[in-house]
């Protein structure tokens, strides 16, 4: 396998724009235009089209991407919990598109899966999405049509739903982290859906950006407390973030609050599509710099960004004593005594018993991955029978067995689930999410209440794995 380590494209030259440029990107405003919020709710438009953006500095040509409203990533949509949202999506691409509101517990018709929940938006046409977010947290939106290409070329953005009573912090930052494979002239390299990569890790890039820019450093001040919203918007790269000299406290995963806790081994592990809300008490020394390192791929570890401390005295002598715990969301808790247990077997891939063989499996086309022996390839097939049906309101356990040699971030649409255990070991801290990262050969159990009727996608969020067959449907009746 040819592995593309991050930032190999003359990283120092990519950083010529300097820390001011990087700080502007990392501190991108989170607030949506107040004029778009009325007594009826939040209304805005997203225009999907080709654009050119300065991703790697002034010494390189602008990179051609596919973007919402001409910016990469797309506009940060920020609303208050319980506020009705209406978004008109206009398609100015040369192919169909849709928008999936990742992590949202919304009506099935608004979920954005082409052919399953809506007809794809044709070039020159538009579609109105309308829903009311019941949960506060860090969510995001992205294309779900030709998703490997469209998400891989940039069609994504963050959706922040504020709590009625947000926690007390000095500052809030959002890092939308994306992974790109760029050529020497800073253009997106061709070769999506390489068959070898599709059966392994997926398309790992050579350039990592935060909020659309290759970062250098972000200025901080000793003593302040920062709420950091992390979003892995990559199509394949898994991230393991280590904050040198700091003790990050995880307070939410995938938008769902949890007991504040330090991550295992001090590393925040995020598969594609996963999010983490982190509280950081900046206890470094004034004038010093501290790295945030992504070392998931071992020898290809790199410094994602640095915290550069101002030389001014600390804001406070001791860490803030304000509560870190976030208010709970109204997610129904499954009744583990009456659950319906469904076995889910992830199969295929290189070294997984299927190799790279071609052929049709289930209702899919050419496939290298399967769930319980069936493959749904591409962006789905509305005629494929569901993996199972479950009555509305019933509690369900997904007993996931990863029979492959690869990692899989498994995402369930329309619901949030509780992570019960891994290889029989209970998951601490009452962890919830919409995407669970399953290690090679690992068994993970998650539980949810099937309270949202419709046909819901359940798939791996490594995009090559999804389009290669690691996707199915769960029907709530």
Description:
The chain is mostly beta strands. It has three domains: 11-162, Immunoglobulin-like (Sandwich), CATH 2.60.40; 171-309, Immunoglobulin-like (Sandwich), CATH 2.60.40.420; 340-476, Sandwich (Immunoglobulin-like). Helices cover 6% and strands 39% of the residues. It contains five helices and 32 strands. The protein has helices spanning 11-14, 18-26, 147-152, 195-198, 463-467, and strands at 37-38, 41-53, 63-68, 77-80, 85-91, 99-102, 126-131, 137-143, 156-162, 171-180, 207-210, 217-220, 225-232, 239-243, 249-253, 256-261, 267-270, 275-281, 289-294, 302-309, 340-348, 369-371, 388-390, 394-402, 408-412, 417-422, 425-426, 432-433, 435-438, 443-450, 454-460, 471-476. The strands form six sheets. Strands 21, 22, 24, 26, 27, 28 and 30 form a seven-stranded mixed sheet that branches. Strands 11-10-13-18-15-16 form a six-stranded mixed sheet, with no helix packed on it. Strands 1, 2, 3, 5 and 7 form a five-stranded mixed sheet that branches. The relative contact order is 0.14.
């Amino acid at each position: 396998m040819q592995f593309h380590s991050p930032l190999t494209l003359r990283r120092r030259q990519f950083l010529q724009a300097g820390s001011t440029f990087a700080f502007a990107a990392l501190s991108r405003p989170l607030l949506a235009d107040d004029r778009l919020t009325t007594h009826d709710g939040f209304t805005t438009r997203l225009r999907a089209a080709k654009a050119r953006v300065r991703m790697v500095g002034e010494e390189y040509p602008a990179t051609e991407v596919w973007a919402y409203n001409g910016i990469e990533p797309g506009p940060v949509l920020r609303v208050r919990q319980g506020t009705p949202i209406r978004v008109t999506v206009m398609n100015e691409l040369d192919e169909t598109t849709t928008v999936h509101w990742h992590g949202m517990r919304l009506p099935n018709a608004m979920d954005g899966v082409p052919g399953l929940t809506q007809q794809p938006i044709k070039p020159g046409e538009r579609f109105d999405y309308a829903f009311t977010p019941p949960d506060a947290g860090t969510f995001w939106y992205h294309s779900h049509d030709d998703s490997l290409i469209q998400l891989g070329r940039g069609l994504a953005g963050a959706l922040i739903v504020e709590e009625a009573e947000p926690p007390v912090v000095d500052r809030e930052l959002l890092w939308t982290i994306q992974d790109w494979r760029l050529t020497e002239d800073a253009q997106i390299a061709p070769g999506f859906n390489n068959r070898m990569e599709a059966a392994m890790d997926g398309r790992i890039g050579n350039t990592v950006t935060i909020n659309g820019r290759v970062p250098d450093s972000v200025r901080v001040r000793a003593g302040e407390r920062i709420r950091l919203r992390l979003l892995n918007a990559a199509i394949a790269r898994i991230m393991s973030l280590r904050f040198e000299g700091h003790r990050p406290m995880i307070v939410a995963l995938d938008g769902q609050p949890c007991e504040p806790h330090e991550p295992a081994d001090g590393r925040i592990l995020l598969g594609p599509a996963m999010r983490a809300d982190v509280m950081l008490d900046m206890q470094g020394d004034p004038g010093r710099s501290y790295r945030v390192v992504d070392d998931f791929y071992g020898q290809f570890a790199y410094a994602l960004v640095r915290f550069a401390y101002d030389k001014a005295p600390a804001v406070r002598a001791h860490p803030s004593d304000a509560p870190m715990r976030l208010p709970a969301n109204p997610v129904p808790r499954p009744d583990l005594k009456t659950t319906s247990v469904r076995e889910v077997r992830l199969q295929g891939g290189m070294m997984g018993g299927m190799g790279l063989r071609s052929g049709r499996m289930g209702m899919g086309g050419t496939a290298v991955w399967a769930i319980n022996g069936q493959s749904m390839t591409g962006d789905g097939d509305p005629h494929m029978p569901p993996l199972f049906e479950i009555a509305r309101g019933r509690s369900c356990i997904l007993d996931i067995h990863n029979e492959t040699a690869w990692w899989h971030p498994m995402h369930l649409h329309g619901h949030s689930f509780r992570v019960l255990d891994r290889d029989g070991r209970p998951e601490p801290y009452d962890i919830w999410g919409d995407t669970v990262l399953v290690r090679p050969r690992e068994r993970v159990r998650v539980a949810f209440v099937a309270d949202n009727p419709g046909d819901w996608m359940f798939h791996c969020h490594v995009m090559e794995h999804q389009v290669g067959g690691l996707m199915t449907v769960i029907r709530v009746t």
